Amino acid sequence: MIVKRIIALEGDEVVTRAPYPFARETVPFGHVWVEGEHPEDRMSLDSNTYGPVSKSLIAGKVTGVVWPFPKAGRIRWQDYRGSPRVSESNQRLEVPPLYV
Predict the structure, then answer these.
(1) 94: confidence class by pLDDT, cuts 50, 70, 90
(2) Which runs of consecutive H residues, i.e. helices, occur in 1-100?
(3) How far apart are CA 49 and CA 32, in angstroms?
(4) Which residue, among 3, 6, 4, 1, has the nearest Cα to 83 in the 3D structure?
């Protein structure tokens, strides 16, 4: 199991970091952009390495921190302000039609 922060949703535009091959990326339908918490950006294997991640791979939601001990406790999601590197889409991408 790995834990990453979702910083962008489908339709959002992200200013990427190395080693991602493009300077900007629009997150496609059914995907999210995830990034790690390591202070040195290049030390985290995340969407900047692998690209957008399918939402079908998300298995849960972090509700608390147990380590490091100074940060232990419940996570207050309402206090998270988002990333300045993400331009939120004015409208979310539409679900593509299904063909039978």
Answers:
(1) low
(2) 47-50
(3) 14
(4) 6
Beta-ladder partners of 87:
13
Q: What is the Cα–Cα distance from 11 to 92, expressed in whole angstroms? A: 6
Spatial CA neighbour of 83 closest among 2, 16, 38, 20: 16
Residue given tokens 């294997």 in the structure block: 45
Residue pointed to by tokens 């490091």 = 68
> Please, are residues 47 and 33 in contact by the beta-carbon 8 Å criterion?
yes
Token pair listed for 95: 């679900």
What is the end-to-end Cα distance of the chain in Å, rounded? 36
Q: Which helix (H) or strand (E) holds 92?
A: none
At 25, list the tokens.
Answer: 């990326």
46 exposure class (CB count in 10 Å sphere: 0-12, 13-18, 19+): buried
* Global pTM exceeds 0.85: no
- Please write the tens of the pLDDT for every residue from 22-63: 999 999 999 999 998 776 767 789 999 999 999 999 998 888
